[in-house]
Amino acid sequence: MRFRHPDGSTVHLAYCTNVHPAETLDGVLAQLRDHCEPVRRRLGRDRLGIGLWLAKDAAHALVTDPSALRGLRTELDRRGLEVVTLNGFPYDGFGAEEVKYRVYKPDWADPERLEHTTALARVLAGLLPDDVTEGSISTLPLAWRTAYDDHRAETARGALRTLAERLDALAELTGRDIRVGLEPEPGCIVETTADALAPLAAIGHDRIGICVDTCHLATSFEDPLPALDALTEARVPVVKSQLSAALHAENPHLPEVREALAAFDEPRFLHQTRTATAAGLRGTDDLGQALDGEALPDASPWRAHFHVPLHAAPAAPLTSTLDVLKGALARLVGGPHPLTRHLEVETYTWQALPAELRPRARSQLTEGIAAELMLARDLLTDLGLKELP
């Protein structure tokens, strides 16, 4: 979906296909047929943006076979779909029964991460619509915090500098400006937007910036306005933003609140949980750890890294951090000029919701994704953007 900002620029809205498990190119093509095109039709749009997640095998097939890349581009066009952004965070196995810590490997100290991201950039340059010259890729925020020493930190910085050089060369060769954004996430070396400032300054390149995920922002109790203002002041480009909401528990000391939270403690993904205390942010790697005994203080609200559907906050006594998303979006695109022109709804946890909330049929998932996009569309038009055909 495209929107005209009051300054005349085009803002793109997509939804991320990591909600549909697929590791191969054939699986990606099936996604377009079975999920993405039905969402477009449900919205009544001639064109729908999707943020493709391409696992390592799919990316390798596309970057090594020009005919395969042309075939994917043709299939996107045929189904009324367009791609300006990729999710480059998960490397593979995102559809596995247990993902947890696996999603953080390989990290930016491992050569596979550089090669995979380079492949994604080359693929995206070939997938961009004819009238679009800018593409974006979100990526791992350096590494998970453990087993990351000074040597690995320097290796990671070197890999990102090499990536920047490759992106420069790609732009010169193709005329397509592909940028990559570190996506701060709780538990990682770059957990918050503030954590991103020093590493990005060390890299010092305008094609390497930040991806602001509003679920992660909220989970870490970051206030979106000063966080985004600090990025602007530091001249850190916001490559893209993922529009998402976290799980919020106002009174985690109450038994009924803990019981409600326990329904979201599922085995597939990590749900890092945080609380803000007078001594600073406290947290656990997973929701179950927070609920187990006294691992996390419960005198103040808890937030968990669980991407809650935007249009459907959980039932009381829980809620979502949709207000954080709204505040961030107002700063991202509500000003005289947008801080980013690439927005992506990323709710990959539909099938991880408590059983009674999960879609039981493909059509229900289609309805849910369409509803999320409609809510995002309404937020954008309320900010003065005009939806384009």
Sum up the structure in keywords.
389 residues; alpha/beta; 8-stranded parallel β-barrel; 5-stranded antiparallel β-sheet; 15 strands; 20% strand; globular
Write a structural description.
The chain is of the alpha/beta class and 389 residues long. It is 40% helix and 20% strand. It contains 12 helices and 15 strands. The model has no long low-confidence stretch (mean pLDDT 97).
Output the structural class. alpha/beta
Please summarize the sheet with the most strands. 8 strands, parallel, barrel
Note the gap between the termini. 8 Å
Give the tally of β-strands. 15
H and E string: EEHEHHEHEHEHEHHEEHEEHEEHEHE
Helix fraction, binned, reads 40-55%
Strand order of the largest sheet: 2-3-4-5-6-7-8-14
Mean pLDDT: 97
Spatial extent as radius of gyration:
20 Å
